[in-house]
Design goal:
Layout lengths: L15 E4 L7 H15 L14 E4 L12 E6 L4 H9 L9 H8 L12 E6 H13 L10 H25 L5 H22 L3 H20 L7 E4 L13 H7 E11 L5 E4 L4 H7 L1 E2 L4 E6 L3 E3 L14 E5 L2 E4 L3 H7 L24 E2 L5 E4 L5 E6 L4 E3 L2 E4 L6 E10 L3 H6 L5 H15 L4 H6 L4 H6 L1 H38 L7 E2 H8 L11 H13 L9 E4 L9 E7 L3 H5 L9 E7 L3
Parallel strand pairs: 2-8, 10-11
Antiparallel strand pairs: 1-2, 3-5, 3-15, 4-6, 6-18, 7-16, 9-15, 9-18, 11-17, 12-14, 12-16, 13-14, 19-22, 20-21, 21-22
């Protein structure tokens, strides 16, 4: 689809791009390949190549002839707080356990309502995870010590509100050089940031992201670099098994962030043989980019047969599941090249894996074919080299009809592709929208010829001026919608700043320049609003101050200015003459608010 690979040089990040056939051709490449094959077949002298011949992979380990690659799987038990694990389950599972413990704490609890959705995905940058670690240590909130799940939810919510308030204040004050102004601003805007933080936790996507940030921080930055785990298996039998998978220094140097996803499954479900990779980049370039490291955390109160444990500390009683083991092959890409994506080369969708002897319990390592079979156990973390092929065995039975098997997965990506993965991490809403767009455009017939081969690929879209224009217009509408949301937020920020000042003991009026300085802070994503944007927006709000829309009056429901439920209107204290001449209001103009009648 894209003959000129436009990625940054992988070599500078320890990678090497080379041909690799796993038998899979992304749907974005199939249609163009069919047309090419049809054209080439008309000439018998032409050698017909397939889509898989042009497929490539990025190898992040480039061993010399004398240096063999060591593939490892590290297994950690009790990796997270049990209540954190329960929250991950509730945020993913479509079925809810009907025990009193869960019903009382998750469905009827007044502090936090968790809604399950599967699959879901997000992306956690290393910077986010470090912020969480540093903030919790600084504020003495490394561990939430509670006895019940309901108490944990309440404490977790308050902790997250405080964390988001700190983030908002950090963003706002980082652009201020005057310490006195910074201290004054923190005092007058603390209520505004508190309101924003509370609003964060009304959105399940934000809650899932916060849970993911905490899990990445705990598992990948704190636990793995400091411990080899409870069980370690290695492709090199003579290697020591008490060595950590990576050091914290190496992780912080190499990793940009972690794509986090979650899946909920019931009996009959399985995940066929594959390796993890940046899915959207495969769609766009037919290049497989594996993560640096990959892992999972098992979040259901389930254990595979013969793995039932009696733990008085458990949040819920553990039920039995037959099947559903996590299986990984230590031969890595060599093994994957033999079997291919979901067995498309060998014809075996399980990649040669066979269920171990039923008499075997615990982690099973087949020394002949290098398969490691790991039974499902609640709160078990598994991590391994990112390019190891793996699968999830079919679930045969779960004792409880109200329980599903939930797995949270992690893919660590480097600085070469991390920022691109972050825009649409696998299983996220952004990713699903992008894939849906590709499939819609590919299924849309262009002419009689394209109807015969099933649609068009993205290279054809670029040649179709009408469709290209449609996609551009669609993108413009998304940009307009985002601008409307940003403008609404800026209006709210300006009013909150004015109300906070009005309710303080400050005697002087705010001037336009004060408001521009505090509210004209560009968003990291959109780069809006700049100080000029804030200036123009405030000017338009003042022009509308006699209207009934958001810019005219403001309903102070929270009593930021001192009176709950009061209505306020902006007034220009001075410089009214230049304002009425339709010039942009001067930065020195004084602004105030006054109470008015309700609408």
């Amino acid at each position: 689809m894209n003959s000129d690979f436009a990625f940054p040089a992988f070599e500078s990040h320890g990678g090497r791009l080379e041909p690799f056939n796993d038998g899979h051709c992304p749907e974005t490449f199939r249609c163009a390949q069919s047309a090419t094959l049809a054209e080439r077949c008309t000439d018998e002298s032409t050698t017909v190549s397939s889509c898989t011949d042009t497929a490539r992979i990025v190898r992040y380990k480039c061993p010399s002839a004398s240096d063999s690659v060591e593939n490892e799987v590290h297994i950690y038990n009790d990796v997270l707080n049990p209540h954190h694990v329960q929250m991950l389950y509730e945020a993913t599972a479509s079925t809810k356990h009907d025990s009193n413990d869960i019903k009382d704490s998750t469905i009827t609890t007044p502090c936090l309502d968790l809604t399950g959705e599967s699959p879901w995905g997000t992306y956690v940058t290393v910077e986010e995870a470090l912020d969480w670690i540093n903030w919790t240590k600084m504020n003495g909130k490394c561990n939430i010590d509670t006895t019940t799940y309901e108490d944990y939810l309440a404490s977790w919510k308050e902790t997250l509100i405080d964390f988001y308030k700190w983030q908002e204040l950090s963003k706002s004050t980082s652009l201020s050089d005057d310490k006195n102004e910074e201290q004054s601003f923190q005092t007058t805007s603390r209520r505004v940031h508190a309101d924003r933080a509370k609003n964060h936790l009304e959105d399940m996507d934000t809650i899932r992201h916060a849970l993911a940030v905490e899990a990445v921080a705990k598992f990948f930055i704190e636990t793995i670099p400091s411990s080899s785990g409870d069980i370690v298996t290695s492709s090199q039998q003579n290697q020591s098994t008490n060595k950590e998978l990576y050091t914290k220094r190496d992780f912080l140097k190499q990793a940009h962030g972690v794509a986090v996803w979650a899946l909920s499954s019931r009996p009959g479900a399985s995940v066929q043989y594959h390796i993890d990779y940046a899915e959207l980049l495969r769609y766009e370039y037919n290049v497989t980019v594996p993560p640096l490291w990959a892992g999972t955390i098992q979040c259901s109160a389930l254990c595979s047969k013969d793995q039932i444990t009696q733990d008085a500390e458990s949040v819920n009683s553990t039920k039995k599941m037959v099947g559903g083991e996590f299986c990984v092959n230590l031969r890595g890409l060599e093994h994957y090249a033999e079997h291919g994506y979901k067995g498309m080369i060998s014809g075996d969708p399980m990649g040669g894996w066979k269920s171990p002897d039923t008499a075997t319990s615990g982690v099973h390592v087949d020394s002949c074919n290098k398969w490691v079979t790991i039974p499902y156990t609640c709160n078990r973390g598994i991590v391994h080299n990112g390019d190891l092929p793996h699968l999830s065995a079919p679930i045969q039975h779960i004792d409880d009809d109200q329980l599903s098997r939930v797995i949270v997965g992690f893919n660590v990506f480097g600085h070469d592709v991390g920022a691109r993965v972050a825009k649409a991490p696998e299983h996220s809403r952004q990713f699903r929208r992008q894939v849906k767009l590709y499939r819609t455009t590919l299924s849309a017939p262009k002419d009689n010829k394209s109807r015969s081969n099933g649609g068009m690929d993205l290279s054809q879209i670029r040649k179709n001026k009408g469709l290209t224009k449609l996609l551009v217009l669609a993108k413009r509408e998304r940009v307009k919608e985002q601008l409307r949301l940003d403008q609404k937020q800026l209006t709210c920020n300006i009013w909150n700043h004015l109300l906070s000042h009005h309710g303080s003991d400050e005697k002087r009026h705010l001037c336009v320049g004060d408001i521009i300085e505090k509210c004209g802070i560009p968003n990291n994503g959109s780069g809006w609003p700049t100080p000029v944007d804030a200036h123009v927006h405030l000017h338009n709000m003042l022009k509308q101050r006699d209207s009934r829309d958001d810019g005219g009056t403001y309903h102070d429901l929270d009593g930021i200015a001192g009176i709950c439920g009061a209505y306020y209107k902006m007034i220009v204290v001075d410089d009214l003459e230049s304002f009425t001449k339709r010039n942009l209001i001067a930065a020195s103009a004084a602004i105030s608010i006054t109470r008015c009648e309700s609408e």
